[in-house]
DNA sequence: ACCTTAAAGCACATTCATTGCGTCTGGTGG
DNA sequence: CCACCAGACGCAATGAATGTGCTTTAAGGT
């Protein structure tokens, strides 16, 4: 139930919004350990039952919030060359995702529905961004790799390190990944 | 607290074993949704307080069990060539990890301690296996990529697809990844 | 303005998480 | 060989969270 069919502007929309912001605030304040449904309900000015009815359980709600917060809010900047665009995007991506908050949201998104519903959405967001960059490069006349190639050799390694080896993250590595990715054209 | 210092053969060891198998069985039977500490305790013939004392909370316990079950039980087979070894290992890896059970264990491992304690352990397991294969190939006189390269361009894409895009998994793709990885020598 | 219907509130029963305290196991030193 | 001691376990109790029937509210259409 991540994609809510709420009458826009109605009471449901207000509740959804206040619950989402309540989750976000409480996560920032106390972390996830002590986060409970009644707590969220109190902060949002709602009763717990409302949350249980709309989202089912805490995990689904967290996953829902996570996906919304992981949605990119802007299209990638245009720096005039594919290499620059990819590098800048990758650095920005790493910045956002490798923070404790970012990692937490990714993990929450992974818990949502067992097959890649919410996680798949996140992946789709990244794919869209990449696609924009690649399309722009193609229009410029540059030779470009496939979106899939970029995902395999740039996005995947970044995410892998973020999730499994938070220590091994540095800018040099990112640049190297961009370079090898561009070899696959 | 994943690495328990239990007196071997004593009561503590029995408790640890029965709790671990209880978790494994209950996960297989009812999935993770309905899994609770008292439930595990009942199945294991233990009281909940024991579990709380030893593991702290459900997540830590799940993470502990996950890491133990994700530990490879055998060294990679030797097929006489790096390409064959890597391909076979990748297919085996994919088989184990892409099952619903495997995915669930990976996600549990990711939840353990916030910085990559348990997840890092899993990554280290994979690195060990890869390292064995690469060392063998070097000893044969083959030209081999770095372990890091294999992780970035083979392991990471596999895991990424397993976690974020369970649909996009096929053998062809795996072979392709092995091929491009071997280009990076 | 009314009517319909989906969503939110309320109250309550059930189950879970968590801790204090006494008991027992099993390794250790005399 | 035996008594001792530290840590681990079981029991029981409490406070909180989960989840559900029933009632009430308000959004959107007629």
From TrEMBL, chains A, B:
InterPro entries: Homeodomain-like_sf, HTH-type_TetR-like_transc_reg, HTH_TetR, Tet_transcr_reg_TetR-rel_C_sf, TetR_C. Coiled coil: none annotated. Keywords: DNA-binding, Transcription, Transcription regulation. It comes from Streptantibioticus parmotrematis. Residues 36-55 bind DNA. This is TetR/AcrR family transcriptional regulator. SUPFAM superfamilies: Homeodomain-like, Tetracyclin repressor-like, C-terminal domain. It holds the Pfam family TetR_C_11. Residues 13-73 form the HTH tetR-type domain. Transmembrane segments: none annotated. PANTHER family: HTH-TYPE TRANSCRIPTIONAL REGULATOR RUTR, TETR-FAMILY TRANSCRIPTIONAL REGULATOR. The keyword DNA-binding applies.
């Amino acid at each position: 139930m991540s994609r809510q069919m709420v009458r826009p502007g109605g009471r449901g929309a207000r509740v959804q919004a206040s619950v989402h912001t309540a989750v976000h605030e409480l996560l920032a304040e106390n972390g996830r350990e002590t986060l409970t449904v009644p707590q969220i309900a109190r902060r949002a000015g709602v009763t717990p039952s409302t949350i249980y009815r709309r989202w089912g359980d805490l995990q689904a709600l967290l996953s829902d919030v996570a996906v919304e917060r992981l949605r990119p809010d802007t299209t990638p900047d245009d720096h005039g060359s594919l290499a620059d665009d990819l590098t800048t995007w990758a650095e920005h991506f790493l910045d956002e995702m490798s923070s404790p908050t970012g990692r937490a949201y990714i993990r929450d998104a992974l818990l949502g529905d067992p097959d890649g519903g919410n996680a798949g959405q996140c992946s789709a967001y990244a794919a869209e961004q990449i696609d924009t960059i690649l399309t722009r490069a193609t229009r410029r006349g540059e030779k470009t790799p496939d979106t899939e190639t970029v995902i395999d050799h740039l996005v995947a390694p970044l995410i892998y390190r973020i999730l499994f080896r938070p220590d091994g993250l540095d800018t040099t590595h990112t640049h190297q990944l961009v370079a090898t990715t561009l070899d696959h054209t």
